[in-house]
Specification:
Blueprint: H1 2-9, E1 22-27, E2 30-36, H2 45-53, E3 61-64, H3 79-84, E4 89-92, H4 104-111, E5 115-118, H5 122-128, H6 130-138, E6 142-150, H7 168-180, E7 183-187, H8 188-194, E8 209-213, H9 224-227, E9 232-236, H10 242-250, E10 253-257, E11 260-261, E12 264-265, H11 267-276, E13 281-286, H12 288-296, E14 302-308, E15 333-341, E16 344-351
Parallel strand pairs: 3-4, 4-5, 6-13, 6-14, 7-8, 7-13, 8-9, 9-10
Antiparallel strand pairs: 1-2, 1-3, 11-12, 14-16, 15-16
Length: 352
């Protein structure tokens, strides 16, 4: 099953909003075939593995990290192919939360006389596809908050300067994360102050969808984020210039109006719209008002907090705008992992 998870990862950044799936066919103690879902709309992992195995699949065991599907989507269902191929046993890591599948695939296989085992490396399989699991059930993206700060919790100095707090190793990892997840989001303050590209220029992979929260469409037409290859989306309020709308659309920027109050856009509406677009995962990178707002509204699933071995003293904190006023109201992370990234420390955890 560990091998199926590794195979599944090959589809990272290419198959969303579908899940990442890998499959192995084993016979007489040997792997005779394998496959993975390599691109959205392409053949599923089980079908690839069965096609590669041919007649040898008869009487073999199929290992797959997600329950095989029984419904027609972009491709025909996998379960009939598994049955017709003569597979004797199927080992599944976890059930598919998709209401069109959830348990039906397992039942159909058992009804056809196949031996089925479920739950092997289940937690690892769920973690791998945590974004898909949320998107398919809630219809909004899995939200990851990315923060880079000094030891004393500053993301910028008093003037707003933040380049660069963390090491190149950490910044390169962030680019890998952008290639892994569907989209990256920042507020207009970050655009005006840092003029970021929000690309994956340090690594191989496709650029994420770039999302900007810009209530009054103050994004400069020559902003770097607008010139980089890939999809660009700006959410704004009703109080915008028609000329600016026209100019941005000429640059192939997608514009969406959402509700707002005192210049703050409705983040629930933003996430709902992104979910409707098929965006299953979203990295929120700043600035502090945006970071604080996502946490205050309970919209964050996971936090990636990079800590650099630097001390600023005075400066800007990532969550200065949060409404939490006492220790008893503080947010707590679970399943926390800590590791070194170059000279920096990465703290990763899920919001309770």
């Amino acid at each position: 099953m560990k091998k199926t998870l590794k195979l599944a990862l090959k589809g990272a950044g290419k198959v969303s909003p579908n899940p990442m799936v890998g499959a192995l066919i084993v016979k007489d103690g040997k792997v005779i075939s394998q496959g993975y879902h390599s691109f959205y709309g392409g053949p599923h992992a089980e079908v690839v593995a069965l096609s590669n195995a041919g007649e040898e699949a008869k009487g073999a065991t199929l290992y797959v990290n997600l329950e095989p599907c029984v419904h027609f989507g972009k491709t025909p269902p996998c379960v009939p192919r598994i049955i017709d191929a003569g597979i004797k046993r199927v080992v599944v890591a976890t059930l598919d939360p998709n209401p069109l599948v959830s348990g039906r695939g397992i039942k159909t296989l058992k009804d056809a006389g196949l031996e089925v085992s479920v739950g092997v490396l289940e937690s690892e399989a769920k973690r791998l596809n945590e974004a898909f699991f949320k998107w398919i059930t809630k219809k909004i993206p899995f939200v990851i908050l990315k923060v880079a700060s000094t030891i004393d919790g500053k993301i910028a100095d008093t003037s707003g300067e933040s380049k660069w707090i963390t090491s190149f190793a950490s910044r390169k990892l962030v680019h890998r994360l952008r290639a892994f997840y569907d989209a990256v989001l920042v507020g207009i303050g970050t655009i005006l102050k840092d003029d970021p590209e929000l690309t994956v220029r340090f690594v191989k992979g496709r650029n994420p969808v770039r999302v900007i929260l810009d209530a009054y469409l103050r994004t400069p037409l020559d902003a770097k984020v607008l010139s980089a290859e890939g999809r660009k989306i700006i959410f704004h309020s009703s109080q915008v210039s028609k000329d600016k709308v026209k100019a941005l659309k000429a640059l192939k920027v997608e514009l969406f109006e959402v509700s707002s109050k005192d210049g703050l856009l409705d983040l629930d509406e933003v996430l709902k719209k992104l979910g409707e677009m098929g965006i299953a995962s979203l990295i929120v990178e700043g600035g502090r008002k945006v970071l604080s707002s996502f946490l205050d509204m309970g919209l964050v699933d996971k936090i990636l907090y990079f800590v650099a071995p630097k001390v600023l003293g005075k400066g800007i904190g990532p969550f200065d705008e949060m409404s939490v006023s006492s220790l008893s109201d503080s947010l707590t992370l679970k399943d926390v992992r800590v590791r070194r990234v170059g000279v920096d420390i990465l703290i990763e955890g899920y919001v309770l």
